[in-house]
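Milestone M4 deliverable, item 7.
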Amino acid sequence: MLEKAYLWLSKLGPSDHLDLALLIVTGMGIVFGLRQFKQSVRAERARLLRDLVRDIQTDEQAYGVFYKIEYGNFRYDDAFEESSDERALDKLLTALDLVCELYFKKHLTDSEMDFFNYYIFRVCTDEGVRNYLEFLKRWYSSINVHPGGFDALNRYSERRWPTKPLPI
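Output delivered:
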């Protein structure tokens, strides 16, 4: 095999050698460029993930309502409407819905969703949150908005934990 390559190279003229060298250099440039591109994509995905987690954890209202859910202190009752808890829960649900939408659009992988699965599970399996989402489902339906609010969150939750579907 090497003999054939050597024989082929010996038949090339000086300009052919130069063309071959330029072709090799160009190929190496493409390989290194693709490598750099992959590294920058990985770095950008890491920044996106960091920012999504940070957005949830640094929002005092949203994280505060998450802790109420976490410790079983969240209540969906008559006092909930127009309360700070309603606004905080809407912020939390919006953030989680965005995460799920990014997942469905293939901007996040299954392993990246592991950062959010605990939040999503705790929120989506809370009885008070489920009742609030059921109310939203009825409300969106009454104003002919389909799908209703937090659709990506609902779809993700139903697929991930089929025995604990959301009501919307």
